[in-house]
Amino acid sequence: MYDVIIIGAGASGMMAAATAASKGARVALLEHKDDIGKKILATGNGRCNFTNTDMSVNRFHGSKALIKNGLSQFDYADTIRFFKKLGIPAYDNAGYIYPNSRQAASVVAAFRMELMRLHVDVKTGIKITEIKAARITAKDTKTTANPSCYCIQTDKGSYESKKLIIACGLTASPKLGSDGSLFRMIEALGHHIQKPMPALCGFSCEGLNFKKITGVRCDATVASLIDGQMTEQNTGELQLADYGISGIPVFQISSLISRALNKGQRVEVIIDFLPAFSDDSLYRYIKDRSTAITDNRSLNEMLNGLLNNKLLLELIHKSGVSPDKKGRLLTDDDCESLTRSIKHTAVSVRKPRGVEFAQVCAGGIYTKEIDVHTLESKIHPGLYFCGELLDVDGICGGYNLQWAWTSGYIAGEMQ
Ligand SMILES: Cc1cc2nc3c(=O)[nH]c(=O)nc-3n(C[C@H](O)[C@H](O)[C@H](O)COP(=O)(O)OP(=O)(O)OC[C@H]3O[C@@H](n4cnc5c(N)ncnc54)[C@H](O)[C@@H]3O)c2cc1C
Question: Do 355 and 363 form a contact (C-beta atoms < 8 A)?
């Protein structure tokens, strides 16, 4: 009998295992992939942006109660201290924290050594077939000395524990292990899982000829409009693809968009392709160019160099002004339409790209089913959840891993 079994050797599961074992618990960590920490290796383009010094609650979506309670127990400074102890000094790039090696592999290696040092039984390549919880309710725990007991049946035999921590993630990037294969067993325990929604992802859109501008990258501001209401905006390198929009600024506003689409709300994204110009200064620029032109060059030629040429042509088309019109003949209305097209193009958002392309999923176990301070199930004493499986997702910048460390620490501490 183990004190604690943890299912899922991702970021939160390994943190839970290290925390529980460091308090003296006998711990087993069960992972169905052939190795631990597969997703961590892919984080931050292989560099692992593992936390951020700006931990404002508004960097997260989902349950604010979980986030606030969680960060009050284990925040970015605890994370930096934890990794420093494991031999990983932090590299701080304007608040974005990486291992000094800039290698995600260092983080996985450090966990591997720590779990070994703490005698955690790590079992990889194991297929879980059933989770049985002893039939004891939360009420009975007041009178029972050793209330909980879990039996995990697998293709390699069964394992028993007093506590169970489930850290299997949601379904983002399923090839890295988080494939939803445990959901059926979690639901069999009486819990409910809000449908995972891709977040930190691109979106299929309509409103521009995306096939013509695929591959273009440019600095832009994107703002989401949900049922006509402006919700969030972000500026950064926008990536245009044949299906629609992607890139960091889109990721930063993606959680609310995915949640809105899931509710059937109407979503548009307004794109400002020249955030460095105000509306007035862009209007003036176009007007002055037009006035200065004395030859017969076309509008398209006149604005050459302002934006990527494929994109410029598409935005001129969208403005309704002919790209072949002579630059010197532009009217005030033309200048106005061009300004509007370059700085206020609206695309309607159809759907998120699939979970296979998402870095994170929103959704997860309903927060009302767990204690927000301890992450313990309100249905089964001794059962805990952590990581992305809970209804918390963060923007890019180390927030999702911070949530994994925070929630893994809390679940592991409760042994
Ligand atoms: C490409 C990419 C880049 C990212 N970059 C960053 C970044 O730089 N910074 C950041 O903060 N976040 C980043 N993230 C997000 C971050 O990696 C995740 O939010 C975090 O890893 C979630 O941790 P977790 O423990 O909840 O789940 P996961 O890391 O997904 O771990 C779940 C584990 O459970 C295992 N599992 C699942 N089902 C079963 C089962 N049935 N039986 C046994 N084991 C099971 C899985 O194999 C996996 O090992 C990135 C994500 C991706 C995909």
Answer: no
